[in-house]
Amino acid sequence: MTELADTDLSKADFGDGFTWGVAHASYQVEGAWDQDGKGPSVWDTFTHGKGRIRGGANGDVACDFYHRYEDDTDLVRELGFDAQRLSVSWPRVLPEGTGRVEQRGLDFYDRVVDACLERGVEPWVTLFHWDLPQALQDRGGWANRSIVGWFEEYVGVVADRLGDRVKDWMVFNEPCSFLVVGHLLGVHAPGVRSLRRYLAGTHHVNLSQAAGARVLRSSVADANVGTTHIVTPMRSVGDSERDRRAKASIDVLANRIFWEANMGLGYPVDDCPLIAGIERYRKAGDDEDVRVDWDFVGVQYYQRQLVKPWPVPKLRGVPWMSRDHRRYEITAMGWEVQPDGLYESLQRWHAYDPAQRLIVTENGAAFPDRVVDGRVHDPRR
């Protein structure tokens, strides 16, 4: 077990070649959910539904980055960061998901990118961070194969507008999160609990990963194109064969199914027969179309998961992710603090391809903020 020390670190400790950045996502920070022609996203619909979110919270205003982006970017520079990772809201740019382009939305991202560059902060742009246009969800969302073409159209619009200044791109943020949690377990938007739609959505997202990369490379000179994946190390609660199978299955459902198809390795059905139904969504030529050679992969780590063979209600046969808090410190979110997992996650990706460039695009731990003299002192984070 690794102890989490209350130790201040200096930027200089990491050397001159290390890039420090901050990261945020459109729905998390922008607010202005219905301003300047923006269409609703699945997260707008989800959070506006009664009983979906504790206390009725939503992102209608959030941090008001839409109006405060200059002040926020001033803070990024003041804190000494070199880069700011942000995401583009698909429904802010194409309110119906396809077709009509909302120029006021593109104008906003123009201003944000320019604000970064004027302050010596490099913008890293994520194209999809979970806020699918509700208009496309109404047409089947990620379960509809047509979304690959819809996504290509959207990526082309953004790349054509920002590609003269933005060179660092991430196609998706954590497909696992919006597909497993949003389409299999139904806890996140769009609130779907369906193995079928999870499998269809997964294959179509994997195709969209590669399609988006191709659009970026054809539209943006010298583009640095990657994507991001959360990596969740799995542990079994026991040593039985049933425990081993449960661990292998959940590792496929939460990790490998989103990684290996883009590497040309197909889907690991043998290790998780539950995903065999994904074959019905594959068509001739998909094996080639889904492959992509990333310039980098963003690795994101927060916690490990303990797995036990207990079915999720209405999803018989899906192993359950448990937690054992007896040996580890816990964050304010109830997640185990296990820093060794970050190294394990990087090593796992390195084993697939030792030549692959890896970037830690997210990680950390949530603790209560302590404001002293107008500043948050959070060395434990």
Task: Please explain how this structure is put together.
The chain has helices at residues 26-29, 42-48, 65-78, 90-93, 103-118, 134-137, 147-162, 175-184, 195-219, 241-259, 286-289, 340-352, and strands at 21-23, 83-87, 122-128, 168-173, 224-230, 234-236, 296-301, 305-308, 320-322, 358-363, 371-372, 375-376. With 381 residues, the protein is α/β, with parallel strands linked by helices. The chain has a single domain (17-367), classed as Glycosidases (TIM Barrel), CATH 3.20.20.80. The strands form three sheets. The chain has a seven-stranded parallel β-sheet with strand order 1-2-3-4-5-7-10. The longest helix is centred in the middle third of the chain and has 25 residues, at 195-219.
Segments where pLDDT lies below 50 for 5+ residues? none
By DSSP, the count of extended strands is 12
Q: Major β-sheet, in short?
A: 7 strands, parallel
Instruction: Tell me the β content.
Output: 5-15%
CATH class: Alpha Beta
Radius of gyration: 21 Å
